[in-house]
Amino acid sequence: MIPPLMPTYARADVAFERGEGAYLFAADGRRYLDFGAGVAVVALGHCHPHLVEALARQAGALWHCSNLYRIPGQERLAERLVENTFADSVFFANSGAEAVECGLKMIRKHFDDTGSPGRYRVITCAGGFHGRTLATIAAGRQEKHLTGFDPVVDGFDQVAFGNLDELRAAITDETAAILIEPVQGEGGIHPAALEYLRGLREVADEYGLLLFFDEIQCGMGRTGKLFAHEWAGMAPDILAAGKGLGGGFPVGACLATEKAAAALSAGSHGSTFGGNPLAMAAANAVLDVVLADGFLDRVDAVARLLWKRLESLVEAHPKVLGGLRGAGLMVGLACVFDNGTLVAHLRDNGLLTVPAADNVVRLLPPLVIEERHVDEAMAILERSCAELADRAA
């Protein structure tokens, strides 16, 4: 018999009652160091005082009024994102997947408006993940997500990640855009080379394509820049943001240049809940912290410390770990054996992590971690790897 809660997740048998900073506390009182952060969502840690205060204040004033009316929090958040990014305009949604859907609609409408309705296909990369809607699973083209959901939504062509020659060869008269993650998350923490990102911009310009970056997981400060593509000194035409943008409150955003955003006029797209006052209060509070002087520099510094320690860990435990990759506080530990075993063992020892494809364990800690949290995480990682190595001997 099916349970009341649809069994769409293989959940760990632990329930959390409260969170504080980098820690979660289970119903039995046990404390866990959270290096999963709700899959890169809890960017400021649990119950950050500034975020709590902003949400409580807004909750006592107004929750929802719909997009039939002006929402000042939306206007302020859009202005701040435009001021601090490549974008000229922003649409707010409830999730990253909805932000991707908005971008895909924008692409089609742009070419229809400019007299090329036959240009609608989007080139994506193997290993990419863009959401769970019918269109976004088609964009990701991972068999485990597509099985049972035929017919697959048309309009996507896939090439190898990091291969500009293969991408060029895939461009046809129907190609409209390129969609990639600058750092693949669900696909196994694969960072794109900065030269590749710059090359994508050159290809898009050469062929008149729109360049669409999915920074739902790698954005909002996770790599030490507000958005990961900034390390390459270039910019896309469209960008999907989510996860850390709300610090735990559901928020998605589609950022775009005027060239791309002009396609979406009144009535062409919408959202009942997107950009509601509560969500905007949360996201503005997150930006207050992330854009403060020195915050991203501190993220970069603690990330470099963590990486240095993890490099030594990988070298010391070749029977358990096969490599290290990622960017900033978006780290992938390649496992020698099943990654689920390491995730479960780390959890038993008090550290929460997240599995990913390619047999990888993700470390996605809150951006507010300090050296003491790195020390604590490394102690648990060292102990866990040593125990698993002994078990394998």
Describe the overall structure:
By secondary structure, the chain is an alpha/beta fold. It has 2 domains: 16-47 and 294-392, Alpha-Beta Complex (Aspartate Aminotransferase, domain 1); 50-290, Aspartate Aminotransferase, domain 2 (3-Layer(aba) Sandwich). It is 38% helix and 19% strand. The chain has 13 helices and 17 strands. It has helices spanning 37-40, 49-59, 72-84, 96-113, 134-140, 143-146, 164-170, 194-207, 258-261, 277-290, 295-316, 339-348, 371-392; strands spanning 16-20, 23-26, 31-34, 89-93, 121-125, 156-159, 175-180, 183-184, 190-191, 210-214, 238-241, 252-256, 321-327, 330-335, 351-352, 354-356, 360-363. The protein has a 7-stranded mixed beta sheet, sandwiched between helices. The protein has a 4-stranded mixed beta sheet with strand order 1-2-3-15. A hairpin with a 4-residue loop joins strand 2 and strand 3. Helix 2 packs antiparallel against helix 10, helix 3 packs parallel to helix 10 (277-290) and helix 11 packs parallel to helix 13. The longest helix is centred in the C-terminal third of the chain and has 22 residues, at 295-316. The protein is globular, with a radius of gyration of 21 Å. The mean pLDDT is 97.
